Predict the 3D structure of the following.
Amino acid sequence: MTLLPQTTTEHESTQWVDQGNAECRYVSLDREAMRKALRQQLDDELLYRMLIEERPHQFAEALVFVAESTIRRQRDIIAAIESVIAMPAYQQRVLAYAPNTAQFIPEAHGIFFGYDFHLSAKGPQLIEINSNAGGALLNAILIRAQAACCDSAGINATTVQNPEQAFMAMFLEEWQAERGQQPLHSIAIVDVNPPTQFMLPEFLLFKKLFEKNNINTVICDPSELDYRDGSLWYGDMSIDLVYNRLTDFGLEAGSLKSFLEAYLAKSVIVTPHPRAHALYADKRNLAILTDETALLELGVTAETRALLLGGIAHTDCVHKEDSEALWAARKQLFFKPAKGYGSKAAYRGDGVTKRVFGEIILQGNYVAQALVRPTERQLRVENEMVDLKLDLRQYVYKGQEQLTSARLYQGQTTNFRTPGSGFAGVVVIPADDKGDRSAALALT
């Protein structure tokens, strides 16, 4: 989302961003106005209840302020990463520790790469890349609802593009990469026991989007799919494409055998797929991208090396022989499983116990990342002052930014469970606009 209040110089915009995030202490948008806008655009009472009543902290009712220079820097970092990922030497190195399923090379690229950043005094720092980042369509819904609220407050709110249209075009591009101009008839949105998933409302939103584009769509568990007669079936419906929301990124579980066979036989398009996760999202890859010696060996240019080393939180693979040094430095580290997701089994070093640290060392599939403390956004929520942490996510396809979002949260990780937390719209503060900032200030 891009809301464009008016500012002066780039230095002043950065100062204003810091002040806005630190001192704008009230809920930034009218709660009832936003809920009314959500109800109108969803036009589905069940979905509205799921998002607003059953998941009251899915959407933050605050905005996050970001300098335009920060967004430009993120784009430069992403472009640098994408250039390295395209290198055959890099791919050979990371595929050496990837599951066998990642050796299969589909034509589809993989969708919804999520580049997650913390902000720091030296600029944005990438902390991880996700290969099946959730929340993109929820953020598209939020953009329109918050834009409506901004319009009612006299704010000139614009979006750079229609996110839903961009997402639909992305799915069609994935399909056409494998099947050319054949029509796409059916999509299965696949996750384990979908009715129990926290992101079920987004699955339903995607189903509505696909069906609006005349594509038959089902939401199902992989056990409900059957590979026979050269096709993947859901009952009597042949599935053309699977929108893969599974967190078994390599499709390695025995229960996925039929699904995997269909994918490897090219009987169905799967996106995102195991190779996408292996190239982008395995956290051991960050240890290569922040190792200058490794980058030199790969032949990465000096300019690209500078972007990577300055824009990614330094990461090392955890090895048993380094346990003493890691324990001594733990308060400045964050420990993450190499194939982790959603902050599961991740630990800030200053809170890790000796027992848990021992388990991390024994498992041997963790990385230790330099701790980049997230920016805080202070708000008054339900008549109490709440300090919320924030991170920024760029949703990217083939290196191109599709949507920028923020997440507000309390505690160690983004959990969408605490008052004031949730996905938040982003206000980009440009450096070269000469008007005044009164409209943006009115939001706070």
Notes: The longest strand covers residues 384-397. Residues 77 and 307 are 6 Å apart (CA to CA). The chain has 16 helices and 20 strands.
